[in-house]
Amino acid sequence: MKKDIHPELFDATVRCNCGYESTLKSTKGEEVSVEICANCHPFYTGKQRFVDTAGRIDRFRKKYAKFEEQKSSAE
């Protein structure tokens, strides 16, 4: 194998926004912050968590409202 081509491996502490902390191997550094982990992700917990879906839908409707107006006036 070639020398000096592999990244350095650290014993990293991974911290999630939910407060969960774990230690594992990483090439990113000794401290890694994540937004979501297996401890709080809805797929693994079975709990649904709503994340600003109403705001996203409203933004979509505002963005494409002019196309609806053009479509209805053409008919």
Can you describe this structure?
- The chain is α+β, with helices and mostly antiparallel strands.
- It has one domain (10-74): Rhinovirus 14, subunit 4, CATH 4.10.80.
- It contains three helices and three strands.
- It has a three-stranded mixed β-sheet, with no helix packed on it.
- Strand 1 and strand 2 form a beta hairpin.
- The longest helix is centred in the C-terminal third of the chain and has 11 residues, at 53-63.
- The N and C termini lie far apart (70 Å).
Task: Provide a quick synopsis of the model.
By secondary structure, the protein is an alpha+beta fold. It has a single domain (10-74), classed as Rhinovirus 14, subunit 4 (Irregular), CATH 4.10.80.400.
Task: Indicate the topology.
Blueprint: E1 10-16, E2 21-26, E3 31-34, H1 42-45, H2 53-63, H3 65-74
Parallel strand pairs: 1-3
Antiparallel strand pairs: 1-2
CATH topology: Rhinovirus 14, subunit 4
Order of helices and strands: EEEHHH
Give average pLDDT, whole number.
81
Total number of domains: 1
| Level-2 CATH architecture | Irregular
Give the % helix.
25-40%
Distance between the termini: 70 Å
Poorly predicted sequence stretches spanning 5 or more consecutive residues? none
Estimate the global geometry from the Cα principal axes. Answer: elongated
Give the C-alpha Rg: 23 Å
Largest sheet: 3 strands, mixed
Helix-and-strand structural type: alpha+beta
